[in-house]
Specification:
It is a single chain. This protein has 138 residues and is an alpha+beta fold. It has one domain: Nuclear Transport Factor 2, Chain: A (Roll), CATH 3.10.450.50. Helices cover 27% and strands 35% of the residues. The strands form three sheets. Strands 1-2 form a two-stranded antiparallel sheet. A two-stranded antiparallel sheet has the order 3-4. Strands 5-6 form a two-stranded antiparallel ribbon. The longest helix is centred in the middle third of the chain and has 14 residues.
Length: 138
C-alpha cells in the first residue's frame, strides 16, 4: 500500500470527520509495510500506551521496541482501520489485522479424520504473570 500523505495541519489535531478519516488512513498505511520510524514520530515523547493485556508502557523508545518486536513476528501484516468517533481531543477507531506469526502456530493431533487435540501458541503473555513488553513478545 502506498503511504497517504497527511494533510498539513500544523500542530493542530484533526477537527472534522474527514480530517479524522484521513489521519486514520494515513496511520493505517504506515503498517503496510511497517514504517516504525514514522509511526513512532507520530507519538509524543511522553506517550502512554495501553495495548490489550500488555502492561502499560511510556515513551517513544519503549514504543519503538514494541513496534520492532511486533513487526519481526508478524509476517505479511495486513491492517484495516476505520475511524469511529471524535470528541474534543479524543478519537476512536476500530481495526482488523491479519498476519502469519513467524514463531507460533498450531498443532493438530488427528484421529479418525477429525481433530482430537488442538494446541495453539500465541505471541502474548501468560494470563497469570505480569510481564513487560520485551518478555511478552519473545
Amino acid at each position: 500500500m502506498t503511504t497517504i500523505p497527511l494533510a498539513k495541519q500544523g500542530d493542530r489535531n484533526p477537527r472534522t470527520i474527514e480530517e479524522c478519516r484521513s489521519f486514520v488512513a494515513y496511520v493505517e498505511s504506515l503498517f503496510m509495510p511497517w514504517n516504525v520510524d514514522v509511526l513512532v514520530d507520530g507519538f509524543t515523547e511522553d506517550c502512554v500506551v495501553r495495548f490489550g493485556i500488555v502492561p502499560e508502557f511510556r515513551g517513544r523508545e519503549a514504543l519503538r521496541a514494541f513496534f520492532m518486536a511486533r513487526s519481526a513476528k508478524q509476517k505479511g501484516y495486513r491492517l484495516k482501520k476505520q475511524f469511529r468517533t471524535l470528541m474534543n481531543e479524543t478519537m476512536t477507531n476500530i481495526w482488523d489485522g491479519e498476519w502469519e506469526d513467524s514463531t507460533t502456530g498450531q498443532v493438530w493431533t488427528m484421529r479418525g479424520g477429525k481433530i482430537a487435540v488442538w494446541e495453539t501458541a500465541f505471541n502474548s503473555g501468560l494470563a497469570d504473570k505480569a510481564l513487560d513488553v520485551s518478555q511478552m513478545l519473545k
